[in-house]
Design a protein that fits this description.
heterodimer, A: alpha+beta, Ubiquitin-like (UB roll), B: about 180 residues, Rossmann fold, five-stranded parallel β-sheet, 7 strands, globular
């Protein structure tokens, strides 16, 4: 990803704490650097941000709009609030909607105990889901030789789409439909196992925050994802240029 | 008349794992018995739900007509209603049938997969409702304890806090699927 700015230092406040940021740094990166927790599910170090999950919304003094921290660059004199009651309420609502939109059953999921959605629900104190569940009819795609795609557990973060396109360069995954009909599809909406572009590298499986993409050999609670390869690959490639 | 607080547990559509986890409190059950009387439960012999109970733990989702009427009655006769475990909190595994019609679920279970006596029961077994839902979608719930099942320590902590008149903060003790 090409940064749009030359590096200059900006000073600003996050939650009342004075911080210094590079001009090309997003508020999310800056917060993480300073050990300030901002929840996110679609952000993934090593691929570009899309501001999709809306969990990293923050308040910036001087604007009524909530801004996604992953898409907002640090500016001189900014005053950022990351954890107000209003933000907590919206974040809980986002998680409520994510849990209710698909068929998430933590107790029988391959990713139980290693799932970012489940972890975040615990972290943000979601003791129950306040809206009715939708129970959509979605079929599991087990046509691939090594992996399974279960859209019942997909939260549409599109990490798989981005890693496949930007890092692997295959662009097997893409997005189809809108709203609750939105789906991640492989190639031209065909069974994953019949995809001509998939290289079977498994990067999508490793970056998936939930149990939507997993290894065929894994049973309940056995699927642990490994993400360390991504910043490493990124650094190696940038260093080569 | 005892001045002890009263405790009840109710088993709706669940696997009884939450009750097992409750029993798994082991010798600390004696400490709980000092604080409260267990007045209604699958674990005791009382047939009718008492006039008023201080704390009722609910295991299981609301899936059948019997569950539905039971939970309405229990709510009306309980001061503090606790959804115990993922089936009560999220409908969990029982809700996995919600994507299919009741008819097709029954046909699958009692006709297609049955070797003998292939027939859908119409007596004794309560009829299924259209959907299996979390308890709080039917009646108001005061406390939620997620987990599949919540650990014995979680249940013990929750109960002792509630019996002491405090609202338990489970923090990271438990979560969905725990």
């Amino acid at each position: 990803m090409k940064r749009p700015f030359k590096t200059r230092i900006k000073t600003l406040k996050i939650d009342g704490i004075d911080v210094g940021a590079r001009e090309d740094e997003t508020l999310l990166e800056l917060a993480q650097e300073n050990d300030i927790f901002i929840p996110t599910l679609c952000h993934l170090e090593g691929v570009h941000d899309i501001g999709g999950c809306r969990l990293c919304l923050v308040e910036v003094k001087g604007t009524n709009k909530l801004l996604p921290a992953c898409m907002t660059y640090a500016e001189e004199g900014m005053e950022v609030t990351t954890n107000s009651e209003r933000l907590q309420m919206y974040r809980r609502q986002v998680l409520d909607l994510l849990f209710s939109e698909r068929n998430h059953v933590c107790s029988v999921c391959v990713s139980n105990g290693h799932c970012e959605l489940q972890w975040l629900a615990g972290k943000l104190g979601i003791s129950h889901v306040g809206v009715p569940y939708l129970y959509p009819q979605l079929s599991v795609d087990a046509s691939h030789r090594f992996y399974i795609y279960d859209p019942n557990r997909c939260i549409l973060c599109t990490r798989c789409v981005r890693v496949c396109d930007e890092i692997e360069g295959a662009h097997t995954w893409d997005v189809m439909g809108r709203g609750t009909d939105c789906l991640i599809i492989s190639d031209l909406n065909q069974p994953w196992g019949t995809s001509d572009t998939c290289t079977r590298c498994g990067k999508c499986v490793q970056v998936c925050p939930t149990g939507a993409l997993f290894h065929k050999t894994k049973a309940v609670a056995e699927m642990e994802k490994r993400r360390d390869f991504l910043p490493y690959l990124r650094t190696m490639r940038e260093g080569r240029k | 008349m005892s001045t002890k607080q009263t405790l009840a547990t109710v088993w709706l559509d669940g696997c009884s794992g939450c009750h097992m986890s409750f029993l798994d409190i082991d010798e600390r059950l004696l400490e709980l018995a000092v604080l409260a009387d267990l007045v209604y439960s699958p674990l005791v012999d009382t047939k009718e739900f008492p006039e008023m109970v201080d704390i009722t733990l609910i295991e299981g989702a609301v899936s059948s007509e019997e569950d539905y009427h039971k939970i309405k009655k229990v709510r009306a006769h309980t001061r503090l209603l606790v959804s115990l475990g993922d089936c009560a909190v999220t409908a969990n595994v029982p809700a996995m049938r919600n994507r299919f019609s009741v008819r097709s679920v029954l046909e699958r279970a009692y006709l297609e997969n049955a070797d003998l006596n292939q027939q859908i029961p119409v007596e004794v077994i309560p009829s299924l409702r259209e959907r299996s839902v979390p308890v709080h979608q039917v009646v108001p719930v005061d406390i939620f304890i997620p987990g599949c099942p919540p650990s014995n320590d979680t249940i013990y902590y929750g109960l002792t806090e509630l019996l002491a008149g405090r609202r338990p903060d489970f923090g990271t003790m438990t979560r969905f699927g725990a």
